[in-house]
Predict the structure.
Amino acid sequence: MVLVALPIFQADEILKIYFVYNEMIIYYYYFRSDHWNRNSDLKLMTPLYILILTSFTFGILYIVIYQFIDTANEIIVDGIGWHFVGVAIFNVIWLVLVVNEELVLAWITILIVAAQLSYIYYNLKFKYPPLSRFDATFIHLPFSLYHAWIMIILTISTFVAFIPDKEKGRSSGVLEEILGVLALCFLETAAIGYIEKSKGDLASASVIAITLYGISFQQDDDAIIHWVALVFAVVSSVHILKTYLVKRLRERQEEHTPLLV
């Protein structure tokens, strides 16, 4: 059994490293182009894309290394498994489809990515909680960032797939404005959901908040999108800060409780 499992495990590692590496390259060159900005009202600043991309990509690479440690084997094999390979493969397919402007197919593909990644995210949050700071940093944190990132990409992909290109110099129509606001509402709901329903996942909520700030700053020529995004970003930031402070206060109280008894 060990001899049979070993080649499969090694193939799994090779696939993970290969597809994560390809994602880094394709993301980098894709988001440096103006394709995304030409197609969507929900534009982000390129540095923001690169910042979020770099953070979760290197986190995923740490996971590839970390899973060789015995204590991490159960989380990696049972909690993540081949779903991560599926996420990486379909993510690359999505990028290729978007670059070739097959936007509806790209949208279907990113739905598959989101479903696979949500399964992993659920496992890590509710079945395999971190046993140490190392687990939290090198396994749970990267997937928190990755899941939030994919929720952002899914939102933008939906917008791009079903809204026609905006001609240069033309302002957004009423339908585009409504859909844009609904997309922002979804992102804000996701940010609050990460905090309230996912055991205070501040990392994922922070990715959404930063994205909302980026949309607001980039959309200074569209007052509605600009202000809605800014308000949602501030609300998310306040909620994140409040949750963090409450958590820290509880930790301090727990530390001092034995001394008072």
Q: What stands out?
A: DSSP finds ten helices and no strands in the chain. The chain has a mean pLDDT of 76. Residues 171 and 222 are 8 Å apart (CA to CA). The first helix runs from residue 2 to 32.
